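Researcher: Let's do a round of design. I'm pasting the structure tokens now; please hold your answer until I've finished.
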């Protein structure tokens, strides 16, 4: 009798549809060098086949750890990510062999920080992730720097701007807003963050006037990546769904 039961179970198992959870992909700490001599640190996770990779750019005085909630959502959906520490932040504290801190950055020094995004994209390219498989995601001054990287030639599949400002650290967002034919934009800000809210409205109007596909989503409160949380997942889920609708 036991033998019959075992055989029957084997037959049922073979006939059942095969489903499998996505393979566990580790998060790797990576280090890479910019063209002007800064050594940067980031957290990288490879995507599931056919998925996008989010290139995450934090805000002023923060670091890659602010993306924890987004990274958890990206893992669930099979997206990859590279969350980097901009020069002078987190684990990216040396340029040309010397210590560096954002605290002493001039406006001219901030203008060069977009090179970090270019170098991160080059790292991903070396790992067979082309620019058109990237979603560039920036928070606060990181959003403005993402627009600057776009104006400097980066060509991602889409751009997420969390709490952009018309001007942060001398990086003026409108100056770098692309022309028609650029990647779709998703802007988000919370109403209690007055400057980012008003800036997002102006950028959205400018994008529309230039024929750039752009949408706006209200945040639940707070600034930048702080709008993303497991407790209030609406904005996070919206970003993930929006990325899933980008042109493959």
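Researcher: That's everything. Go ahead.
Model: Designed sequence:
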């Amino acid at each position: 009798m036991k033998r019959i039961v075992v055989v029957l179970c084997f037959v049922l198992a073979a006939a059942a549809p095969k489903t499998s959870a996505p393979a566990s992909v580790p998060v790797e700490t990576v280090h890479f060098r910019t063209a002007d001599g800064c050594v940067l640190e980031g957290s990288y996770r490879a995507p599931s086949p056919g998925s996008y990779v989010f290139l995450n750019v934090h805000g002023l005085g923060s670091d890659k750890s602010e993306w924890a909630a987004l990274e958890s959502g990206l893992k669930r959906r099979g997206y990859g990510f590279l969350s980097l520490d901009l020069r002078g932040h987190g684990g990216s504290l040396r340029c040309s062999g010397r210590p560096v801190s954002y605290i002493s950055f001039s406006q001219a020094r901030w203008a060069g920080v977009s090179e970090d995004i270019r170098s991160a994209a080059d790292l991903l390219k070396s790992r067979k992730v082309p620019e058109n498989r990237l979603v560039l995601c920036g928070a606060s001054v990181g959003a403005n720097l993402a627009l600057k990287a776009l104006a400097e030639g980066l060509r991602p599949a889409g751009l997420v701007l969390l709490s952009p400002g018309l001007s942060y650290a001398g990086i003026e967002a409108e100056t770098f807003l692309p022309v028609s034919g650029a990647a779709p934009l998703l802007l988000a800000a919370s109403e209690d963050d007055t400057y980012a809210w008003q800036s997002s409205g102006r950028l959205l109007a400018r994008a529309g006037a230039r024929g750039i596909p752009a949408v706006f989503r209200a945040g639940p409160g707070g600034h930048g990546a702080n709008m993303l949380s497991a407790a209030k997942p609406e904005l996070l889920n919206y970003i993930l769904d929006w990325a899933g609708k980008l042109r493959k």
